[in-house]
Every structure is written in C-alpha cells, then in structure tokens.
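Appendix B. Worked example

We walk through a single record from start to finish. Start with the input: the chain for Phosphonate ABC transporter phosphate-binding periplasmic component, Prochlorococcus marinus str. MIT 9116, length 297.
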Amino acid sequence: MFNLKNFILSSSLLFSIFSLPVFSNPKVLKVGAIPDQNQDVLDKRFNLFSKELSKQLNVEVKYIPVINYVAAVTGFRLKDLDLVWFGGLSGVQARLQTPNSIVIAQRNIDKKFESVFIVNKHSELNSISNIKELKKLKNLRFTFGSENSTSGRLMPEYFLNQAGVEIKHFKGKKASFSGSHDATIALVNSGAFDAGALNKQVWENNLKNNPKRTSNLKLFWITPKYVDYHWLAQGDLDRKFGEGFTKQLKSVILNLDIKKKSHQQILDMFNAKRFINAEAKQYKKIENIGRKLNKIR
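Next comes the structure step. The output line below is what the pipeline stores for this chain.
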C-alpha cells in the first residue's frame, strides 16, 4: 500500500543525498545498495568493495547510502546511481524503470537462495517441514522485513499464500514491516512480534556472530529455493567512462578471488565464495510473482 509519509521522507532524503557534489562529476562511478541490514554493516561492505573497484578500474568510485529500497530504485531510475546491489524484486523494479540497464553478476549463493520463518521461543510452535503447516502462523503477530524485500517479504508472502495464509489472517488482520532483516530478528527476539520472515543468510550470520540477538528465537521453516540478489548497471557506462568499461567492470567483479586476502575480505562481507554471471531472464519468475502481489505494475 502506498504510504505518503514514507514516500515524502524517502524522497526528501534521497534528493538531499543526490544533491551532493559527487553527482556533478560524471567520472565518479556511484555505487548504491538496498539497505537490507544495519547501516554499519553496509558501510563497511560497500566502502571496501568501492575501494577495490577504484583500484582496478582506475576511476573514482563512491558508495552512496540510501534510506530505503524505494530510494535505491528511484536513484537508479534517475541515473543518480550507476551500479546498485539489488534484491531480486527491487532489481526487477529498477530494471523495468530504466531502459538498457544490465544485470551483470550475482553471488554463487543467489541462484538458489532461501528465506526463513522464525518464531519467538515463548510460542508453542515447533519447526515444520510441510508448507501447509504455515497455517499455524494464523492469528499471530507477524512481521516481514522491507515492503520491497525479496527474501523478507515477496517470497515469504508467496509461500504463505500457497499455504492459504494471507496478511489478513495475522493478528489484527495485518502484518508489520520492520524495514530490514536485522530489525526483524530484533523485533521477534524481543517478543514485540511472535513470528517473522527474513533472509536465511542474515539469520545464520546472526546465529553465529550475535547469539544474544537470537537467544529467544526458533527456526520455524526454510523456504524452497529461488533466485535473488544481483548487481545492476546503467546501460550508458561505456559512454561515461570509455568504450569497454562495462565489460571491464563485470570482469573485475567476476574475478574477485577468495584466495587473495583483499578479495577475501570483500567476498566474506558479501557472504559469498565468488560472484558469477547473471542474466535478466533468471528473474522472470520474481517479476511474475511481483506482479501477482501488486509489487510491480
């Protein structure tokens, strides 16, 4: 549902960010990303990535944070961002709004990605193995992540619908949207919500590295696999940076080598062993589900 307040907030911040001097220099490669985790995590990951790109491409590269998924899509559509790390849904939204944009890479884990449903330990629910048992979540306080998240909203809602569960079946006949995967963990762990859905990768990282943040949580269900995150580039980078630049950019990303210490740091931040080739056609199912759930028009 369109939220005027959020739109005004995101738009005002978006355009205040995009009025910075960096945008007046066409020779700066501007990197963005959907804010799917805490900002300190994102800053470390994408500043490290940008530094490596700058080193190998011999151009200035700047990471430009945005406030939410809508701002990332809008920034790309307005060509204020040149290269953006999108989820499946947000990437499709941005690509459909930006003629000639190019899907250039995904992580090795993105071809077969998963979401998880989690519940507070104080609930009487135990892990399930059959999608039909998602019906047990009815009448509970439930939160997704961002409204435009693939792993935190789109695919979880799709699987819920397959089990006969709609948003109106949760307590209060509504679901909440935490804004990020980390926030979903925090809200369900605190007991503010009984259950939630998020990116499996973020869930496993928190289990390993932040046990206090997950101390009151149980894994409820792991979804079937689907395609998710990817790098989306503007189609005019060769014009801005020189012939062959897009091909070179793609090569740098695909050739990040986990055996090299500086590259390993980057890949570890992306929870990946490597980046692999990706194509727009891989995301057709995501597009179809997005249209079905009115996230793409």
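Two observations about the output. The longest strand covers residues 28-33. The chain has two domains: 4-110+227-292, 114-222.
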